[in-house]
Amino acid sequence: MVTDNTRRTLLKAALFGAATPWLPFGCATTRSPDEPALVGCAISGRDDYRVVVANQWGSLLRQLPLPARGHGVAVESKLGHAVAFARRPGEFLMVFDFHSGEMLKLITAAPNRHFYGHGIYSQDGAWLYATEGERATSRGIIGVYDVANGYQKAAELSGFGIGPHEIIRMTDGTLVVGVGGVHTDGRTPLNLPTMEPSLTYLSPQGELLDQVRLADHHLSIRHLAHDGDQTVLCGQQYRGEPDAYPALLAMHQRGQEMVSLKAQPEQWARFNHYIASIAATDEWILATSPRGNCYGIWSKQSGELVELLPLPDASGVVVKDKQFRVSSGAGSVILQAHPFEKRAVNSNVQWDNHWSAIS
After folding, report:
1. By 3-state DSSP, what share of the chain in percent is helix, strand and coil, each rounded to 5?
2. Entry pTM
């Protein structure tokens, strides 16, 4: 098995090797190259972790050091604020101004709490919702932070399960949580035979609106996206038999059953039991797998896998200007609006985990 340190060494060699030439991005080039468009966590060296603000091509505009490895980033474009969350089980969240690069606040977890790596702002930007857990039990918590009051914690929402990971917001303000269902000691799972993952819908006040499950309880629901309308996409980490390769992506609309996306078992095997980032347009769904060093594009209408592509340490994906932008731990940035039409550049940033778009 390749260790994390070995993988990072190989990726760094790829990152600072031969540069990929810059390619034109059509209408996307009308934006200023100094305009913040993307933000994500990155690795700069051994135990050197950053959060990076980039332009539309993934070129670094400014960066801030992080106390430890980061994971997801929440963005509030009207305020110019962003929040970097520590990788689970995380000890911090860091608020910063993405225009100036100034750190505004560093919040550390209480002794009996940890962060799960993701968060989202409310529609009006007044509240920050962060996925958290109770250390001894992995009891799921959504921490609610008052933005105007210096990000003071105002409430905790709970009662929906254990091990929440990503949280997103629908267009009507409804919160959707990928509840992994796994009780852990650090990163070691303790309850795989009895884990209970779910896709959970909450009101902004924490009322449980809906909760649905996949047939295979070993599919830990972790990463989420929505299509700008009513469809939620969820990506899973499979915690069952190592030689089984079930579907790792599903889509859902409130009041309906979950629908698994389609691919052949050997194609699912390429994803190495793990989906990281997801994004969707009206027609297409794109999902990455850093463990599988690949990403796939599915037809939203048919649910069929249309294209499966290699990408070293495939990490974040967002939709910006109706096009997918995909990041890589090897520094590549892929721009792709449709299957079989990708363009690539080298950003010289060793991207890590997820991207968020700045509107």
Report:
1. 5, 50, 45
2. 0.90
